[in-house]
Amino acid sequence: MERTAKATPQVAREHNERLVVATVYVHGRISRADLARVTGLTRTTVSDVVERLVASGLVAEAGRGPSTGGKAPILLEMPARARLLIGVDLGDQVFTAAVVDLRGRIVRRASAPSEGLSGEEAGRLALAVVDSALAHGDAPILGVGVGAPGLIDTGTGTVIRSVTRDWRDLPLGQRIAEHTGLPVHVANDCQAAVFAEHVFGSAPAANLIAVKVGMGIGAGLILGGELFTGDGFGAGEIGHTIVHPDGEACRCGRRGCLETVASLGAILRGIEARTGQPASLDQALDAFAAGDPDAREVVLGAGRQLGYALASLVGALHVRRLVIAGTLAAFGPDWLDAISAAMAERTLEALAADVTVELGRVDDVVVLGAAALMMTRELGLRLQPLDATMSPVRGPRGAAR
């Protein structure tokens, strides 16, 4: 029978420090006594951990809470600017890097046009926008998070393949780390985007699907509180799933992919085909809001196509919360209703009734998500709902330390 390895004191100390950090972050403000109660750690251990965190500046005392009969307890919090984060979105048309605080507020941003750039030229521009953002940091920088198009090894930060940028086996994370001297975490842009809702949304959820819809379409999956990337890092690559075998040619080289019927490009092409005039995103939004029948039919039709495709995700995973974010989220509730109705048509009724579909962020979803991904990795946060059980690791003698 295989023996279970015991945690060393160092492993126990690191785990419990991360447990305290995550608990303070999720609760906002909490006393030492409540920290011990929520985490299951002893009060002595909590005091030792808090002392180290306060000395580092990551946690601070924030006044006294209400008294329950005795002396009012001192509350602890994680100041929003105890550390700053750099979030980077290597988008199709613009590269953006932003300074973000620990609560997801953008302090400053830098951006540069990127349309048509590829290879080394695109790589140099990525470093330049990161440099521009770093120049504006006025507190310790925790690290850099990057959302990039393509298939990304999130463990090493390597771009395995990005057709858009003509990158193959590019050690992007390593290059940025060597250039800046900071920790760097890289993920696919859609996989990064789910962290914007998971970390900076209304409340952490153990399971969450976020679908980013713009010129491309992709999903990010949080399962059991962790980013799920699949065995080969391609989980969520739904944009190039073929939905109409005899459909339009796609930029991936095949025909009838989901992007050809449900993306921003599909909507703009559809409006042009009906009106005979080229349309921009702003024009499409204005026409849709004004009730233009052509615009509404095209936009809602694209929403239905997306809903049909998402039905398989709901059926396979039964995740109760699904967020639709990105450029097309600007079309608002009517577009979302078309997605939800189509999804319900092709999903088991009981599952469809158990799923909440929400509109997410229109702008900055990748920047914020990349920053959040980096923050959770560097601080060791594993965010769970407030009522989730948070268990301490046991030391060599089996006691909670």
**Strand neighbour order, sheet with most strands:** 6-5-4-7-11
Instruction: Note the gap between the termini.
Output: 27 Å
| Architecture per CATH nomenclature, i.e. the level-2 architecture of the largest domain | 2-Layer Sandwich
Structural class: alpha/beta
Tell me, what's the shape?
globular
**CATH homology-level superfamily of the largest domain:** ATPase, nucleotide binding domain
* CATH class type of the largest domain: Alpha Beta
Order of helices and strands: HEHHEEEEEHEEEEHEHEEEHHHHEHHEH
Query: Number of helical segments?
Result: 13
What is the makeup of the main sheet?
5 strands, mixed
CATH fold label of the largest domain: Nucleotidyltransferase, domain 5
Helix content: 40-55%
Low-confidence stretches: 1-5, 386-401
Average pLDDT level: 89
Q: How many domains would you count in the coordinates?
A: 3
Radius of gyration: 23 Å
Strand percentage lies at 15-25%
Protein model, in words:
The protein is of the alpha/beta class. The chain has three domains: 1-79 and 384-401, Winged helix-like DNA-binding domain superfamily/Winged helix DNA-binding domain (Arc Repressor Mutant, subunit A); 84-182, Nucleotidyltransferase, domain 5 (2-Layer Sandwich), CATH 3.30.420.40; 202-359, ATPase, nucleotide binding domain (Nucleotidyltransferase, domain 5), CATH 3.30.420.40. It contains 13 helices and 16 strands. The chain has a five-stranded mixed beta sheet with strand order 6-5-4-7-11, sandwiched between helices. Strands 14-13-12-15-16 form a five-stranded mixed beta sheet, with helices on both faces. Strand 4 and strand 5 (94-101) form a beta hairpin. The protein starts with 8 loop residues before the first helix and ends in a 22-residue tail after the last helix.
